[in-house]
Amino acid sequence: MNLILGPLLYYWSRDDVLAFYEEAKSWDVARVYLGESVCSRRHLLRLSDWLALAEQFAAAGKEVVLSSQTLIESESDLKMLRRIVADGRFRVEANEWGAVRLLSGAGVPFVAGHTLNVYNPETLDVLAGLGAQRWLPPVEMSRTTLAALLERAPAGMETEVFAYGRLPLAYSARCFTARHYNLPKDDCQFRCLDHPDGLALTTREGEAFLTLNGIQTQSAGVYSLIGELPALRELGIASLRLSPQSRHMGRVVEAFQAALAGETGAAEKLARVMPGPAVDGYWHGRAGLEHSAENHT
Fold this sequence. Notes:
This protein is an alpha/beta fold. Helices cover about 30% and strands about 20% of the residues. It has an 8-stranded parallel beta barrel, surrounded by 4 helices.
């Protein structure tokens, strides 16, 4: 299995983004997803900047995929999507069905992102017919459901699984981070910059509940399948997606590489650099905020 660096879901300063990806060039990942997939107001990096980074990663021997925006809300969003599709140098991750339509119409092979919500082999067949060569299951899909789906998956369709990071659960036309600060979305003052790993949301009892990331809602816990590598191999999963975090991402990659190599203690190494508690409930068909270790002690 290959390790993959997923798209940056948070809003960081331009300098922080460029420094992060400069370091990432040396990480042992086979593929890098680049681009803004969450909010069109996040534009400290323009498309030309993402394309420049893409060329640098390609020169460093990494496969590059451009991630499209998940929620298209305006004509300017659509124009940006058309520019990404028309570039032609790099594969594109389609994160909504409008992108699928444009990519298919242009005859461009693409990656079907997890937000396309593929829950059955019939939908996967349709995507394969439209040009999808790789797909990601929805993040809440269990191992059992995925195994049944893969038994009838189209030949040659590669499967990539979200294996690490706060789970991207939902998207909204409203900006929850702006709302937290009593600001309108159109004058959000880019407060996402103050929360490089999202804004923690707790219950009235003070328990971790969710993470707010602009228009995106994430899990409070950090999803980790580092202990599920044998099961993932058995399913024939080709790639494991690791979602970027603001600190120690290189050590996250190293921990997963150690686990893939069969080294002991990799999960413990990973736990030391996670920005929240580990969860893997969805993988086991349970509540998403659960963790398997807690159910076997």
